[in-house]
From TrEMBL:
<feature type="binding site">
    <location>
        <begin position="188"/>
        <end position="192"/>
    </location>
    <ligand>
        <name>GTP</name>
    </ligand>
</feature>
<protein>
    <recommendedName>
        <fullName>Signal recognition particle receptor FtsY</fullName>
        <ecNumber>3.6.5.4</ecNumber>
    </recommendedName>
</protein>
<dbReference type="GO" id="GO:0005886">
    <property type="term" value="C:plasma membrane"/>
</dbReference>
<dbReference type="GO" id="GO:0006614">
    <property type="term" value="P:SRP-dependent cotranslational protein targeting to membrane"/>
</dbReference>
<keyword id="KW-0675">Receptor</keyword>
<comment type="function">
    <text>Involved in targeting and insertion of nascent membrane proteins into the cytoplasmic membrane. Acts as a receptor for the complex formed by the signal recognition particle (SRP) and the ribosome-nascent chain (RNC).</text>
</comment>
<keyword id="KW-0547">Nucleotide-binding</keyword>
<feature type="binding site">
    <location>
        <begin position="252"/>
        <end position="255"/>
    </location>
    <ligand>
        <name>GTP</name>
    </ligand>
</feature>
<keyword id="KW-0472">Membrane</keyword>
<keyword id="KW-1003">Cell membrane</keyword>
<keyword id="KW-0342">GTP-binding</keyword>
<dbReference type="GO" id="GO:0005737">
    <property type="term" value="C:cytoplasm"/>
</dbReference>
<keyword id="KW-0378">Hydrolase</keyword>
<dbReference type="GO" id="GO:0003924">
    <property type="term" value="F:GTPase activity"/>
</dbReference>
<keyword id="KW-0963">Cytoplasm</keyword>
<feature type="domain" description="SRP54-type proteins GTP-binding">
    <location>
        <begin position="273"/>
        <end position="286"/>
    </location>
</feature>
<dbReference type="GO" id="GO:0005525">
    <property type="term" value="F:GTP binding"/>
</dbReference>
Length: 300
């Protein structure tokens, strides 16, 4: 229910408009599909993805001999879920070797710190021992903020001083996690996009250290992106994907944005699964992404 509620603005931007279109266009003709395409593109679904989605709906309608627009709603839901449904949204944290390492990347302000706290909280609820690493040593505020969250959730944070080598923090954190038999280590990274090249170098250095210490790690590289930035989020994700080998997306601030359509855009154009969505500022406000639920919440 919370999830559905959090999508209300996106629903107004997509679902309500489609319902309206169905009301005014009784027949499934070219006009109908053109307008449907327009609605999707306007709602940040992305041009490529919108075209493909509409084409799939058109084909499916033809195959099922549907000519009445009212009956097309179910097809739209089905095809939306199908585009998203090919991905595995589970987190790979059940590893033989401990700890499972989750590297969290993304630009400042996207919701990285909050998402790390939410993840830590979730794992703690599952009775897992979690350790955090303050890998963003560029901003003192980032370290402080993560410490506040670590205390709130009740997990330990491994940190160095501002300006320290992020690689050294990560090295220490891995050893601490091994010594304390932690199940999961979640590593924060810097997110200053003003200097992309250096940032990507820094993250790949951190990645190399992780791999050197635990060959099967990182088990997840989660990119945090802010849903309210719409199509910009997609181009940002491309940069991170190339440089850091992202395995999944945490899409934050889905509550309160009308741009939830980018979920589709990300899945299709980047071929990376949205694994988790942020639907609020509290530590419980992180949900595993469910494509069918998403399609239904969007179009009901
Ligand atoms: P960071 O700079 O990437 O570490 O970003 P923060 O974690 O500090 O988050 C930036 C702001 O976004 C904070 O005010 C958070 O409370 C807020 N925020 C993060 N995730 C969500 C979310 O899913 N929904 C809402 N409404 N706010 C969020």
């Amino acid at each position: 229910e919370r999830f559905k509620q959090s999508l209300s603005k996106t629903r107004a931007n997509i679902g309500d408009k489609i319902v309206n279109l169905v009301k005014t266009n009784k027949k499934l003709d070219d006009d109908f599909y053109e307008e449907l395409e327009e609605i999707l593109i306007q709602a940040d679904v992305g041009v490529e993805t919108s075209l493909e989605l509409v084409e799939n709906i058109r084909k499916s309608a033809r195959k099922n001999k549907i000519t009445d627009s009212e009956k097309v709603m179910d097809l739209i839901k089905e095809e939306t879920a199908r585009i998203l449904g090919v991905y595995d949204t589970s987190l790979r944290v059940e590893t033989d070797e401990k700890p499972a390492v989750i590297l969290v990347v993304g630009v400042n302000g996207a919701g990285k710190t909050t998402s790390i706290a939410k993840l830590a909280y979730r794992f703690k609820q599952e009775n897992k021992k979690v350790l955090l690493a303050a890998g963003d040593t560029f901003r003192a505020a980032a370290i402080d903020q993560l410490q506040i969250w670590a205390d709130r959730v009740g997990v330990e944070l491994i940190k160095h001083q501002e300006g320290a080598d992020p690689g050294a923090v990560v090295f220490d954190a891995i050893n601490a996690a091994k010594a304390r038999k932690a199940d999961i280590l979640i590593i924060d990274t810097a997110g200053r996009l003003q200097n992309k090249t250096n940032l990507m170098k820094e993250i790949s250095k951190v990645r190399n250290i992780i791999e050197r210490e635990i060959p099967s790690a990182p088990h997840e590289v989660l990119l945090v992106i802010d849903a309210t930035t719409g199509q910009n989020a997609v181009s940002q994700a491309k940069i991170f994907k190339e440089a850091t080998g992202v395995t999944g997306i945490i899409l934050t601030k889905l509550d309160g944005t009308a741009k939830g359509g980018i979920v589709l855009s990300i899945a299709k154009e980047l071929n990376i699964p949205v694994k988790l969505v942020g639907i609020g500022e509290g530590m419980e406000d992180l949900r595993t992404f469910d494509p069918v639920l998403f399609a239904e919440a969007l179009l009901e």
